[in-house]
Specification:
alpha/beta, Rossmann fold, 2 domains, 15 helices, 39% helix, binds ligand SAJ
């Protein structure tokens, strides 16, 4: 393995930790990553197109719950970390990490526009001796077949003067145990030397770095991780649909199955699948597989079942109201929790938004309460601004139903059970809290 002078110089800088690290995209992946690299001793330059975020960061103000406020303030004050919107400043970075969104187009095709926009804007400032690492979740082949050609229009050759790798983010927002620092990190280099340099870089800040043969192996592993979740969540959701038909308690069935000490991982049924990963990433693989005449039926079926769940929730509520001779049309309903999962403040792709839309379409008067989301702004799946209402005895007593769509910890479920008349619990939180009434509680 022949190390070019540029590769040797970069290796030295990484080992001495006097390399400058650029992080493009300062969201729930990029900011924790930037903080981790700065804590490891690198000078870090964060880059984001959102000027307000950049100003907020440069004032030492944090906006990502998984980042410690004090850590950020200290790193900004010490000059170890700074943010900018100006791409030319990345010219001084020895390492450039790219953590930008990889959404889907309206007809569920990969949207690489963010990655391509970054590639187009950095290729002009690339210089010999830089390492570029893509972290965004994407289909196998993106790094070598899409990103590499754009970067090489700079005239720099990957593996000689320029180094390229893929290392998927594995951030589980809100996870109290696994954060950026202690989550094993896959690294696949476009060439052997690229892989060596990328692994060396991450080893300076993370506890467990796993080298794989190529970017495509790492890309495929990451998409598989999220496909695994989407398929298994869909499986328990299908069990919930079937158990409902059979008048069985799916939660009891799954709890029983979960007593098996080996060979099973129990997922939980719910109102649907939200977030910016699980509903989207598997379709990156499905799209790529079509190029090989390969129908990924598990992915399509999982998507179909998970998308059914908000409709099932609306039907369940309609039936529960019907049992007390109340039409859903005209009923006052409180949706409890609009974040896509518990104890976070992110409503993206949240199934609760679809539930609200369906209930309103069926004539219900819907309001929401979410302790982490005081204001719900218009977004892809939700057309207007709404404000979280307070949970109080008077309001609860004046409702026809409460639908628990997100099982946030910071909610007074006893108060809800005390004053509401009907609760549709799509997360089984009431049973988990040992609450059985006096409200009538219907489970998914
Ligand atoms: N959900 C269920 N039942 C379950 C688990 C989840 O209905 O048993 C729902 C959640 O309520 C949520 C959605 O699925 O709406 C996604 O849940 P998630 O826990 O996968 O949440 P994400 O997308 O924030 O995080 C995932 C990471 N989660 C875990 O590994 C636990 C991981 O797959 C990725 O690191 C991350 O997406 C990503 O960035 O790709």
């Amino acid at each position: 393995m022949l190390w070019s002078p540029e590769a040797q110089e970069l290796k030295r800088r990484l080992q001495a930790r006097d390399a400058v690290v650029g992080v493009v995209g300062l969201g729930y992946v990029g900011l924790p990553l930037a903080v981790e690299q700065a804590r490891a001793g690198f000078v870090v330059l964060g880059l984001d197109d959102n000027g307000a975020k950049v100003e907020q960061l440069n004032r030492g103000e944090n906006y990502i719950p998984d980042v410690d406020d004090e850590d950020l303030r200290t790193l900004i004050a010490s000059g170890k970390l700074e943010a900018t919107t100006r791409y030319p400043e990345l010219g001084r970075a020895d390492v450039i990490l790219v953590a930008v969104p990889t959404p889907l187009t309206p007809n569920k095709e990969p949207d690489l526009s963010y990655i391509l926009s970054v590639a187009d804007r950095i290729r002009g400032i690339l210089r010999p001796g830089q390492l570029v690492v893509l972290e965004s979740t994407t289909y196998p082949g993106t790094t070598d077949d899409v990103l590499r050609p754009v970067l090489e229009t700079s005239g720099l050759r990957v593996g000689e003067e320029l180094f390229l790798a893929y290392s998927p983010e594995r951030v589980d927002p809100g996870n109290p145990v696994y954060q950026t620092r202690n989550t094993p990190k896959l690294v696949g280099g476009s060439t052997e030397i690229c892989g060596e340099l990328a692994a060396l870089f991450y080893r300076q800040s993370l506890t467990d770095v796993v080298r794989v043969a190529s970017p495509a192996v790492a890309e495929m592993a990451k998409v598989f991780e999220n496909t695994y979740r989407a398929v298994n969540i869909a499986l328990v959701n299908e069990m919930a649909l079937l158990a409902d038909r059979m008048a069985l308690d799916v939660w009891e069935v799954l709890e029983a199955a979960g007593t098996k000490p080996f060979g099973i991982q129990i997922f939980q049924p719910g109102p649907g699948v939200g977030g910016h990963c699980i509903p989207l990433d598997p379709f990156y693989l499905a799209w790529k597989a079509r190029e090989y005449d390969f129908p990924t039926r598990f992915i399509e079926l999982a998507g179909e079942i998970n998308l059914k769940m908000p409709y099932f929730v609306a039907d369940k509520l309609q039936a529960a109201l019907n049992a007390v001779k109340k039409p859903l049309n005209g009923s006052r309903v409180l949706v409890l929790g609009v974040a896509y999962k518990k104890d976070i403040n992110d409503p993206r792709e949240s199934p609760a938004l679809k539930v609200i839309e369906l209930l309103e379409d069926r004539g219900a008067e819907v309001m929401y309460h979410d302790p982490h989301i005081p204001v719900l702004r218009p977004q892809a799946s939700y057309g207007r601004t709404a404000r979280s209402v307070e949970l109080d005895a008077g309001r609860l007593a004046n409702l026809d139903a409460v639908v628990i769509t997100t099982d946030h910890t910071a909610v007074d479920y006893e108060l809800v059970a005390e004053h509401a008349s009907l609760i549709l619990d799509t997360r089984n939180i009431m049973a988990r809290r040992g609450i059985s009434g006096p409200a009538r509680i219907v489970k998914l």
